[in-house]
Design goal:
Layout (H helix, E strand, L loop, with lengths): L1 H31 L4 H13 L1 H12 L3 H26 L2 E2 L3 H21 L6 H24 L4 H11 L5 H33 L3 H13 L1 H12 L3 H26 L8 H22 L6 E2 L1 H23 L1
Helix pairs in contact: 1-2, 1-8, 2-6, 2-7, 2-11, 3-4, 3-8, 3-11, 4-9, 4-10, 4-11, 4-12, 4-13, 5-11, 5-12, 6-11, 7-11, 8-9, 10-11, 12-13
Keywords: Membrane, Transmembrane, Transmembrane helix
Membrane topology: Multi-pass membrane protein
InterPro entries: K/Na/Ca-exchanger, NaCa_Exmemb, NCX_ion-bd_dom_sf
């Protein structure tokens, strides 16, 4: 038990640090090769901050724990909206100016509904995983097209400001890209082993562990990125980071895990509780960010509502475990 706890703590620390290095290295490498700042903000940063979820879920699926992988993906999306955007809005209210982010929000909602349709029958097959991965490729193509077409979008401007603050040589950027990825894999292995060991010792399901401890740990890079961006006034980067990460979590994280280890029989709570909460929070984010008659922003009161919803969901999880 002590060794498992130590593995989780060390795994989290190494995971967060390596993810930060990986994102910086990937963004700097892309910039050196002439990728537009807007495209970096939409694809590289979103993909990079989802890297922990991707690697952890892949490792869990390889170990024959697809329920932990699914819990990690759904739980991370709930953490991203309820906890991370809630905390970010309390620190600095988030105004949505980017037209790209406004286009991504309804797309995220559609992707959530797509996942719900695939999970409706209580299973997740190889073919359904392929559908999500095809959707992921389509999202990347759309992101590239949108970034090349849009000029002067606020998300691109804010990404450019962030890149200037983290300038690297080409050699250093590639080094951290490679080393960050290697350490991500190592830390993920340590983290999954520790989490599964604790789940088995305490008699808690892998799904609950994935929805709580693992989801929170793999979402720490998004928390750091969004809070720092909001404090610098880079509001669209703060919310764009979350929206992009959530789309990647559903399409790539769930898709990759499903390719490795399909789920033949899924706990009904995955759809009836976890997916519904994720959908509800996505709808709340959509309504707040669009404004509908007022300026699109997430103020401190709405940030508090998101945190309260996240707390209520976790109380629900605790009650389900104790019951």
């Amino acid at each position: 038990m002590t060794l498992a706890l130590l593995a989780i703590v060390c795994g989290f620390v190494l995971l967060v640090w390596s993810a930060d290095r990986f994102v910086d290295g990937a963004a700097a490498t892309a910039k050196h090769f002439g990728m537009p700042s807007l495209l970096i903000g939409m694809v590289v940063v979103g993909f990079g901050t989802s890297a922990p979820e991707m690697v952890v879920s892949a490792m869990a699926a390889i170990d024959g724990k697809p329920d932990l992988a699914m819990g990690n993906a759904l739980g991370s999306n709930i953490v991203n909206i309820g906890l991370i955007l809630g905390i970010t809005a309390l620190i600095a209210p988030i105004t949505v100016n980017s037209s790209i982010v406004r286009k991504e929000l309804p797309l995220l909602l559609l992707i959530c509904l797509l996942l719900g349709g695939l999970l409706w029958d209580g299973a997740f097959s190889f073919i359904e995983a392929i559908i999500l991965l095809v959707g992921f490729l389509a999202l990347v193509v759309w992101s590239v097209f949108s970034a090349l077409k849009a000029k002067g979008d606020n998300l691109g401007v804010e990404t450019e400001q962030a890149l200037v603050a983290h300038q690297m040589t080409v050699g250093k950027a590639v080094f951290w890209l490679v080393v960050g990825l290697i350490l991500l894999i190592i830390s993920s292995r340590i983290l999954v082993w520790g989490a599964v060991s604790i789940a088995q010792t305490l008699g808690i399901s892998n799904l609950i562990i994935g929805l709580t401890i693992i989801a929170l740990g793999t979402s720490l890079p998004e928390l750091a990125a969004s809070v720092i961006a909001a404090r610098k006034g880079e509001h669209d980067l703060a919310i764009g980071n979350i929206v992009g990460s959530n789309m990647f979590n559903i399409l790539a994280v769930v898709g990759i895990a499903g390719i490795i280890e399909p789920i033949r029989s899924m706990a009904p709570e995955v759809f009836n509780r976890d997916w519904l909460v994720m959908l509800g929070m996505t709808i709340m984010l959509f309504a707040m960010a669009y404004g509908f008659g007022r300026e699109g922003r997430i103020n401190r009161l709405e940030g508090g509502v998101l945190i309260a919803a996240f707390a209520a969901y976790n109380i629900w999880l605790v009650i389900s475990v104790l019951g």
